[in-house]
Amino acid sequence: xxxxxxxxxxxxxxxxxxxxxxxxxxxxxxxxxxxxxxxxxxxxxxxxxxxxxxxxxxxxxxxxxxxxxxxxxxxxxxxxxxxxxxxxxxxxxxxxxxxxxxxxxxxxxxxxxxxxxxxxxxxxxxxxxxxxxxxxxxxxxxxxxxxxxxxxxxxxxxxxxxxxxxxxxxxxxxxxxxxxxxxxxxxxxxxxxxxxxxxxxxxxxxxxxxxxxxxxxxxxxxxxxxxxxxxxxxxxxxxxxxxxxxxxxxxxxxxxxxxxxxxxxxxxxxxxxxxxxxxxxxxxxxxxxxxxxxxxxxxxxxxxxxxxxxxxxxxxxxxxxxxxxxxxxxxxxxxxxxxxxxxxxxxxxxxxxxxxxxxxxxxxxxxxxxxxxxxxxxxxxxxxxxxxxxxxxxxxxxxxxxxxxxxxxxxxxxxxxxxxxxxxxxxxxxxxxxxxxxxxxxxxxxxxxxxxxxxxxxxxxxxxxxxxxxxxxxxxxxxxxxxxxxxxxxxxxxxxxxxxxxxxxxxxxxxxxxxxxxxxxxxxxxxxxxxxxxxxxxxxxxxxxxxxxxxxxxxxxxxxxxxxxxxxxxxxxxxxxxxxxxxxxxxxxxxxxxxxxxxxxxxxxxxxxxxxxxxxxxxxxxx
Length: 623
What we know:
Domain F-box: 1-47
Structural class: mainly alpha
InterPro entries: Ankyrin_rpt, Ankyrin_rpt-contain_sf, F-box_dom
Organism: Penicillium hetheringtonii
Protein name: F-box domain-containing protein
ANK repeats: 93-125, 126-158, 156-188, 190-222
């Protein structure tokens, strides 16, 4: 008997016992009769299950769902966790069809949903409105549609103009302001204004639009009037800072109030960072101490420096920083000279290297500023309590290295000092710095101190690794150091580095690190954080079905059953079975264990994948 000989009642019974929509869709596509019979039922059943037309932008499919009765209100039927797991990043506001389509920029989907009666201004679980999400992404056509539909341009929790200003959506900001958005609105979630958000992100054109519509450049409900300007300085957005400066009467601020208050100190530091020499002189002449520091961690946090300052970064956030520190790091020579004229301290007594102005100038590779500081008496051999010295921070700049060495800098060849500078050179990939140190005799035999040189060099890139190996550095193939380097490369998802380690014969495959299954190794070390690792590892021979003692004897395949991204990961792993010589009984044993694990981990959604893998194997090769 053929399947078409079965009565409709039996076909519906089969339909209701299939695992999921994937299997149902495969069945109804086999012939026209089944399609006509089951297609409507599939849509109806799908109304409260994963369906991502709002996010994928398929108007025809969305129209069919609406035709078959799907609810347009915010329910799980439009997008659920099972569906968005397949994306590299989960969607923030799943379950809200208008918000989802607005965020993705699908104009026709938004239009269809609104015409079908979907709520246009319904906030999501995260308090986002469709308008705020469309504004954030810069979808001007959708913003206009939603505003015409009556959406609130001044939504209380997430004002659309704040989102648009933060992300530099000039046309959207302009349109929202023209249609009643408050230019001085405050984002409650961040407690800062749209102008501050634009300044923080460095969007000068947005700042101009906001100012032209009446935004107050002094407005800050929490503190000093120069806060919006400081937001721009904090992230080194100097053009944005200049735009705000030109809209403010800074001389009035300088001439009023206590010269020791936060307003004046912030202006002192900001003007030094930006190189506004006349303003800096005016603040100093008003009586603000040149050594005054900003200690509030929420104000002028020196973000660009702290992103580069990778040692003890967790402590750097709360350190008080001076005007000289900012001027040195950004290479503001005239500002440095002005501060030195006022007998500013170089900060050599401070414990943290980030507070030492001379070291900051070295880190910024500003030769003219370094020279001025040396002429003023800066110590080229200043050592911080962790044995760091300026030479170590100059490792990436041959010009600065030569200047410091010419002015008396030295480096004791004790193990810790030599290893430290070698580590910095290798991690930064500073091949030219390595050559300079070797040429000057500082590291005539640099590799005798290295115990982790290859691992450091991996962080510095392929050019650094090739130079290290070409210098005669010996690494045992597949040995401990090679395995550590492989771990670093895999952890950085550096495919070029992995291929280089293969090409130089240092590693043989990706099946294991230090004798441990690489999946298990990465899971145990907390490095398996992204779905993108799996294709890389599987394509290089990693076995996801090998049990590990470190995982209580379970294979990575079984462990994956409990993961957040279980479905796509299981799919990747099951694909590797296609090329394996495994009989049906062995496969069934693997899949049965996996099904038990899925049930125990409360992951029923992966079970259909296991069933399909079994049936594919059982009937492979059949016509």
